[in-house]
Specification:
Shape of chain B: globular
Order of helices and strands of chain A: HHHH
Strand content of chain A: under 5%
Radius of gyration of chain A: 14 Å
Structural class of chain B: alpha/beta
Oligomer: heterodimer
Distance between the termini of chain A: 40 Å
Helix content of chain B: 25-40%
Shape of chain A: globular
Number of strands of chain A: 0
Number of helices of chain B: 11
Order of helices and strands of chain B: HEHEEEHEHEEEEEEEEEHHHEEHHEEEHH
Radius of gyration of chain B: 21 Å
Chain lengths: ~110, ~475
């Protein structure tokens, strides 16, 4: 049986928003981490080459982080402000409420 | 509120929506169909039913004018093949056979004969206008709010007509100062969005070759207005837009009645047929015939032979169940629903049976009650005897209107999740992604805001945000 999200995931790959994991899997049931979400949203909006602020905004996302540029860009674009303690918490999962907020800011021009 | 409703009737549900509903898809509860599933695609006239519109319907975006009820309605229609925008490319809300062209003159018929909750909800109109202005190809036409209040109409919602001793403004909106004129002058303040009140011209009858004076023309035993809009378009409602040597047909009519009690012993209720009927002039000596004896015939002729609305949207945000004036407020019920169709007979049948009657509990509001049944039947007969409802651009819209429930199908959606309250911190954002059909929630009507997003859902959110739900992929 076709996975319910097959066409969305195919399209994500078509558009270069994700390439999945190195082993050829996408792992659809795996929870999204905040760092991955940043990569997805920023690639969806800007592709993979864009300008961003290189001075780290978050204490837990140094410029050596694999997804550094996406997380920086999220802040540049006002899509996230991170947590009050100056962290972004890149490995934290994303709730559906948080996701709605990020999507509304990134794609619907809210706030 | 819930106990007032018979439940959501989900008949002839499309396979696509069924699949969506069973997965991470749409937010609607599939309850027991009341009667048999309609057989055969195309045999049913579709109705689109939005329920649980939030009390605060403006969720952000569109200069603050995006209305959760209207947006859910347009998506519900679009996902079932009825596209709002006429546009070359096929998208969720648009396509080559869509309704509204970027250069159309769109007339929005509202009820401005009354005020308070006796007139059309202007919040709904505001959301509708914003979406017209947001035509994907760039809107260069005109949107005209119009009404004939038969001598007591006011687009400022300050009429002193029957039942209203005061001359103050009381619009049917969350903010009662938001009259139709307030939308035009303040909310939009855009030359593409004027209004036109027909009351002053309703006694001026003009000839067929008069393309200058504002007035009415007689057709058979009905009549229709001819007038020039603020934007300079010469509207002759039956013929089209006068171009100096002929008529263009980029004239679209959207009929937006407020659902309510009307009287006892006459039409009983006001819905889409009775509402469009209000466009006629009552000053031609035939008012008595029409108002009751010939109601169904008059309504049918206006629909079939004067100008067919491309869409009828019943405003059931507040339903006035025992007074046509919508006042006092304790005779209105906040139902928070919208119901739309291109078939006005099916629409009025459904609105009476499944929206008004459950609220009023008045047997006279059932479509099987003699008075209503007779004008529904008369309207149906005259429309069908004239070949159904025709649109100049799309040909036949509805080949056979119907008052038979087995020939109707209703698609429904709840515009608000059951587990997200307005006080929740992410309420507005969740409303927005829901109204834009990006996150459609679970089939039990929940959104489950605390649940973690998995990578499959993430893909759906992002792709729908970028492309809507219609896109090609490898």
């Amino acid at each position: 049986m076709t996975h319910w999200a097959f066409r969305y995931i195919q399209k994500m790959n078509d558009e270069g928003i994700t390439t999945g994991y190195a082993d050829g899997s996408y792992r659809p049931a795996e929870n999204v981490q905040r760092s991955q979400m940043a990569a997805f949203i920023i690639r969806a909006l800007f592709g993979d080459s864009f300008s961003y602020t290189t001075t780290p905004y978050f204490t837990d996302v140094p410029d050596t982080h694999g997804l550094f540029k996406y997380i920086q860009k999220m802040y540049d674009e006002g899509i996230t402000t991170g947590y009050a303690d100056g962290t972004y918490r890149p490995t934290q999962n994303v709730s559906r409420a948080q996701m709605a907020t990020f999507i509304a800011r990134a794609f619907l021009g809210m706030w | 509120m819930k106990s007032k409703y018979p439940g959501i009737i989900q008949k002839a549900i499309s396979r696509r929506r069924f699949l969506k509903g069973t997965m991470a898809g749409a937010c609607f509860a599939i309850l027991n169909p009341l009667s048999s599933i309609a057989t055969g695609a195309g045999s049913s006239n579709p109705l689109f039913w939005v329920q649980c519109v939030p009390d605060q319907p403006f969720y952000g975006g569109g200069n603050g004018n995006y209305h959760a009820g209207i947006d859910h309605l347009l998506h519900l229609m679009g996902n079932n093949g009825l596209k709002f925008y006429r546009s070359e490319s096929e998208t969720e809300l648009g396509g080559p056979s869509g309704m509204i062209r970027p250069d159309d003159v769109v007339l929005i018929k509202v009820n401005g004969q009354w005020k308070y909750r006796g007139c059309t909800n202007s919040d709904v109109i505001r959301g509708l206008i914003q979406r017209i202005l947001d035509h994907p190809d760039g809107f260069t036409g005109e949107v005209v709010i119009f009404e004939n209040g038969q001598g007591r109409g006011s687009l400022n919602c300050d009429t002193t007509g029957q039942g209203y001793p005061d001359g103050s403004v009381h619009a049917n909106a969350n903010d009662e100062s938001h009259s139709f004129l307030y939308l035009v002058n303040t909310i939009f303040d855009d030359p593409r969005v004027p209004s036109y009140l027909l009351d002053p011209i309703r006694s001026n009858f003009i000839g067929n070759s008069d393309h200058g004076a504002d007035g009415y023309r007689i057709y058979e035993n009905v009549s229709y207005p001819c007038f020039t809009t603020a934007g300079g378009h010469r509207i002759e409602l039956r013929e089209g837009i006068w171009q100096g040597n002929g008529f263009s047909q980029n004239l679209k009519l959207i009929n937006v009645p407020v659902l309510k009690y009307h009287d006892t012993g006459g039409s009983e209720i006001t819905a889409s047929l009775k509402h469009l009927y209000g466009v006629v002039s009552m000053s031609d000596g035939q008012g008595g015939f029409r108002h009751y004896a010939g109601l169904g015939e008059t309504c049918g002729k206006m629909m079939a032979s004067v100008r067919t609305p491309v869409l009828n949207i019943i405003d059931a945000i507040w339903v006035s169940y025992s007074s046509l004036s919508g006042y006092p407020a304790n005779t209105t019920f906040r139902a928070n629903q919208l119901l739309a169709s291109q078939d006005p007979v099916a629409l009025d049948y459904w609105a009476a049976k499944y929206i008004l009657h459950p609220i009023s509990n008045n047997y006279r509001h059932l479509p099987s009650f003699g008075n209503i049944a007779s004008w529904l039947t008369d309207a149906r007969n005259i429309i069908n005897s004239r070949g159904g409802l025709y649109d100049y651009e799309n040909g036949i819209l509805i080949s056979s209107v119907t008052g038979n429930e087995n020939e109707m199908s209703a698609e429904s959606i709840q515009a608000r999740f059951t587990d997200v309250s307005p006080s929740f911190w992410a309420y507005q954002a969740i409303c927005a992604v829901h109204a834009e059909w990006i996150a459609t929630g679970y089939s039990d009507g929940t959104y489950r805001p605390a649940e973690y997003v998995n990578r499959a859902q993430m893909a759906a959110f992002i792709i729908r945000a970028l492309y809507g739900d219609i896109f090609s992929y490898v």
